[in-house]
Each structure stands twice: as structure tokens, then as C-alpha cells.
Amino acid sequence: MDLTELITEDVVKIPLVSKTKPAVLRELVEILDGAGRIYDPERVYQALLSREELGSTGLEAGIAIPHCKCDAVSDITIAVGVAPEGVDFDSIDGDPSHLFFLVVAAPGQSASHIQVLSEIGELSQSQSYVRRLAQAQSPTEFVRLFSE
Amino acid sequence: MDGPIQRIMVYVDGTEESITAAEYAIALSLRTGAQLTAAFIVNTRALSQLRKARIFLDTEAEEYRRDIERDADRYLELVRNLAQSKGLDIHTIARSGNVHEEMKRLVKEEKTDLLCIGDIGGIRSRRDELYDETDRTFRSAPCSVLVVRDPDRVAEIFESIQ
Q1: Lowest mean pLDDT among A117-131, B46-60, B135-149
Q2: Contact check, Cβ <8 Å, B67/A110
Q3: A107–B contact, CB cutoff 8 A
Q4: Which of A139, B22, B137, B156 to pair with A55, CA 20 to 30 A apart?
Q5: How far apart are CA B111 and CA B5, in angstroms?
Q6: Closest Cα to residue B23, out of B106, B83, B91, B92?
Q7: In chain A, what are the helix, strand and coil shares in percent, each to the nearest 5?
Q8: What is the rounded average pLDDT of the residues B41-57?
């Protein structure tokens, strides 16, 4: 699964304007809607909220990977948002989240979904790389950094 | 049956590329008389990592594992049906674990001469080299590997089999 094909400038937003967890999820869903990658934004948003109710996807070191399965997409899709000031996302370490990868896959795409989440999870292990991504000033710069 | 290719294996992961590889492997098996095995590996290593990284809840990991096991059955059945539609009986294997390591093991166990895989595309970043399982299978397989490209041409070849 080639993440650089999924993470294009039209699905990257810098900076996110939202200041709360539900608002960030909504804003990320709107990015996908604006890019024409989902059929039903509300259903995706509700699926994300349901997943977050089970446990936060806010990880350590300022990264969050909200995700869900939803039939409002035909193919696996990703939105990226950067919040320079950070947002309280109920993260594991209690710190604000700065870098958000929203991953939505259709039911029946579990293998691809896992691979994408796994690849993003792997990159989140490098705190210096996450920091560089979170400091990107524009979608163009983010995509360039991500392609390295 | 003799010749350099007696046992072919095709790696199926549910992608369109892997189904194209399966069609080509079927055509090749019919032409060479080689025995064909289709293999699907449920990537439980990735599931464990996602759970460890707390990206997945335990219940979520379990749900995805069941999903992928169902996918494995579904896609292997699809490939079996494709082969049968051309009068070929094939062997199918579903396993769990680290994809490229399981494939390496299977290739040896089945005494595979040729492994067919779907198009792996270009390496666009270092991450592809590290994490793309098809790419890692390609690089670590202990036998000759055929990367199947040009799905339109493969479809033509497959359709033309009587």
C-alpha cells in the first residue's frame, strides 16, 4: 500500500482551526468530503465518534490516528491535519496532539486498512520525524516531507 | 511433468494486482503443467503491532483478524473458481503471521520453483522498502519470482484460454 498515493495535497490541512476533539474529527471528515473521497460525511463522523468512545486514538508524542470502517467510502482514504498549538485528544501520555492521520476504510478492506495503519504507526515511532511533519507549514511541504 | 517449472505459487492478498497475478499463474500453470498453489497470509504481526502501539483495542484487533480470515477464504475461493473455470485444480493455503516470513517458509515447504506476485509498483519512499509486504516478499523469496504486470494483457491471455 503506497501511502504517498493516498496522502496528496488536497487531503492535507495546515493548520487545523478546531480546538476540540469532536471538532477536529469533523474538520478532518470535511477535508475528505471536500476532496470527494467520501459519500456520506455524517456517517463517517459518527463511526469515528463511536470508535473514540471505546478508547482514544490519541497516541504518544503528539500524534493521533483516528480510524474507522465505514461503507461511506469505496476505497481506503486518509486525511491529514496539523494543529501547531495542539488539541486535547485524550492522548495516552496526556499531551496535546499536533499531527492527525484520519484513516477510513470500507468494510472488506481490512487487510489494506491494517497495512496503512501499521505503516503510519511505524512512522509514529520516530519522534523526530513526527516533529518535522508537525512543523510543516503547508500541504505541499508536508507531502514533500512525507515522500522522503 | 518435467521442465524447470513444476510448482508455481501465487501470493494472494485481496488486491486487484494479486488477482491479476493469479490469472497469469493459472495461464502459466496450464501451459507448463506445473502444480499451482495460491497462498494468503493473514498479517497477524501487523495486528500485534497495532495493539502494542495502542492504535487498536484488543476487541478491534480480534474483529479485524476475523475479517481478514474471512477475506482469505473469500479470495482463495475466488482464485480456485477462476482456475476451475479454466479446468485447472489448484491447492490453496491460508496461514497467519509475518507475511514475508510465512511466504518464505511456504515457498520452501511446497518446493516452489516460481512465485508469482502482483505488481509492486515503484519504490517511492524508504517506507515502501521497509513495510510493503508484497515488496518484502519479492525481495526475500528463496525462489525465482515473477512480477505480473499489465492487467489488460493478462486479462486477454486469461480470457483466451479455452
Answers
A1: A117-131
A2: yes
A3: yes
A4: A139
A5: 11
A6: B83
A7: 45, 20, 35
A8: 91
State which residues form the domain around B84: 7-157
B4-18 pLDDT, tens digit per residue, is 899 999 999 888 899
3-state SS class at B162: coil
Distance CA B27, CA B88 (A): 9
Q: Please check whether residue A2 touches B, CB under 8 A.
A: yes
Q: Which of B143, B134, B140 is nearest to B17 (CA)?
A: B134
Whether B53 contacts chain A with CB within 8 A = yes
What are B83-129's pLDDT values in tens digits?
999 999 999 999 999 999 999 999 999 999 999 999 876 545 555 55
Inter-chain CB proximity A118 and B50 less than 8 Å: yes
Best of B127, B132, B133, B135 to substitute, by most chain A Cβ atoms within 10 angstroms, is B127
B50: contact with A, CB 8 A cutoff: yes
Residues A24-39 pLDDT 10s? 999 999 999 999 999 9
CATH number of A3-147, picked from 3.40.930.10, 3.40.640.10, 3.30.360.10, 3.30.2350.10: 3.40.930.10
Residue B97, all three cell numbers:
503471521
Predicted local distance difference test score (pLDDT) of residue B123: 46
The answer to whether the predicted template modeling score (pTM) of the entire model surpasses 0.80 is: yes
Q: Look at B68 and A114 and tell me if their CB atoms are within 8 Å.
A: yes
The count of domains in chain B is 1
User: What residue ranges do the domains of chain A occupy?
Assistant: 3-147
Cell numbers found for residue A106: 470500507
Give φ, ψ of A71 to 5 degrees: -85, 10
A107 contacts in chain B (CB < 8 Å) = 67
Give the CATH number for residue B54: 3.40.50.620
